[in-house]
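Blinded run. Sample ID left blank on purpose so nobody reads anything into the name before looking at the predicted structure. Input follows.
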Amino acid sequence: MKKYILAFLFFIGLSISAQAREDAVNIYAVPRDLPKRQIVNEQGTKVKLSSFKGNFVLLMVWSRNCVPCVKELDNINGFVKKTQDDNIKVIMLSPSSEWQTAEEQRNFVTKFKAPDLELYTDTDGKLAEDLGIFTSPHTVLINTSGKEIGRIRGAAEWDDDKVVEYIKNLKKQHG
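Blinded prediction complete.
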């Protein structure tokens, strides 16, 4: 327990966002099972979160209508570049109702300097609902065993070296 408190305090000190709050980060004492609902990738293939086992996953629930979400796209892209060799996968999940086509979604993130992001849609927002997520941005942290280990609410400076190191340490501690 002491280790989690220290990690939490360390993380808050990293300025994960300009206005970091103590309740922005929540690392669970016991990992949780994830919903089995499917999401859709850019090629139209349906996948479950369990498909990503073996990777440490940041499931980023976002919306094109969320100003903080759009503002952090380039920082997330920077994070992806900095962690591409660390077995850390970032999955960008937005409601399918926001996009006419996958190409529209890709063009949108590219416009905001985030061409390297893996894009998925949540059919009718059901996975977010199953996760109890009703606001964005919201990041679900998933260990390599496919269990949810915690969440980060709100935007962050994802490509900041201290944030990158924190996520790498979470991966080391929680698999």
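Unblinding after everyone has recorded impressions. The mean pLDDT is 89.
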